[in-house]
Amino acid sequence: MLQPPPVSLSLAGLSTDLGAPQGGARAWLGWAAGLGYRGVQLDGAAQGIRSRELDRSARRDMSSLMRRLQLGFSGLDLWIPAAHFANPAFVDRAVSATTQAIELAQDLQSLGGASGAVVSIEVDSKADQGVYTAIARAAERAGIRVADHTWPPAASVLAMPEGSPVGVGVDPAAVLLTGAEAAREVSRLATGPVSARISDLSATGRVVAGTGKLNLMEYEVALATRGFKGFRVVDLRGVRGQAEAARETLVAMGGESRTP
């Protein structure tokens, strides 16, 4: 019997108004585990998670909590405005924040005895090549991969060789927004994606995966064909009724949802 793919829940963009918990990052982790998720993608811009707010002891505590909750660490989301990477007034700060997120991901990964963590970002395709070079160097030093989810991918990212620390991240909702099909675009990539999100789009905006334009089965087949074995990161940014959406998506991905 085939095992379902590993599924992680992104904590970025979740709203306490839609059934998610209050009480800080630790409460969110417990909520995700209670739903039945076995992986989590932390919000690198959230209060209590930002790199400058977590000293070594706090990082050790966070890693220990994830282990107790049996949550794998799939990485960090850092949704800095993409334009900041191409704006001379903001680019240094954007690259610095990304480097700090990479270092935080390295610590959480090593403390948890895991591997494969990915930092997800969006970089304006007009960004200077030096931006990608600086991020790639930081990622290589840390042993962390960085996924650029900007779609269509920038030429600089597409040119990265197989195994490069920086590569393409696929967010199906963003792909669908351009009029393309996620499964076909995954198949067309010269090298496999570094990160794969689970998201969907309808005429009214982002929706639960499988209820919009995304053919979830074809997308999964395309990922498997490209040899992608990492976490599928459930992305609920902009989705209404996120608590129920988190459960429905987990079931659609072959997991077993439960009420926390």
CATH topology: TIM Barrel
What's the shape?
Answer: globular
Q: How many domain regions?
A: 1
Strand content: 15-25%
What is the CATH C-level name?
Alpha Beta
Distance between the termini: 28 Å
**What is the number of E strands?**
10
Task: Give the overall pLDDT as a whole number.
Answer: 91
Rg over CA atoms, rounded to whole Å, is: 17 Å
Question: How many helical elements?
Answer: 9
Report helical residue fraction.
Answer: 25-40%
Pick out the low-confidence regions: none
The ordered string of helix (H) and strand (E) elements is EHEHEHEHEHEHHEEEHEH
The side-by-side strand order for the widest beta sheet comes to 1-2-3-4-5-6-7-10
Tell me the CATH architecture: Alpha-Beta Barrel
Class by SSE composition: alpha/beta
For CATH, the homologous superfamily is named as Divalent-metal-dependent TIM barrel enzymes
Q: Mind describing the biggest β-sheet?
A: 8 strands, parallel, barrel
Defining key terms:
single chain, 260 residues, alpha/beta, TIM Barrel, 8-stranded parallel beta barrel, 9 helices, globular
Brief summary:
The protein is of the alpha/beta class.
Structure description:
This protein has a single domain, classed as Divalent-metal-dependent TIM barrel enzymes (TIM Barrel), CATH 3.20.20.150. It is built from nine helices and ten strands. The protein is α/β, with parallel strands linked by helices. The chain has helices spanning 25-35, 56-68, 91-111, 129-142, 155-158, 172-177, 182-188, 216-225, 242-252; strands at 7-10, 39-43, 72-77, 118-121, 145-148, 166-170, 195-198, 200-202, 205-207, 232-234. Strand 4 (118-121), helix 4 and strand 5 form a beta-alpha-beta unit. An eight-stranded parallel barrel has the order 1-2-3-4-5-6-7-10, surrounded by four helices. Helix 2 crosses helix 3 (91-111). It starts with 6 loop residues before the first strand and ends in an 8-residue tail after the last helix.
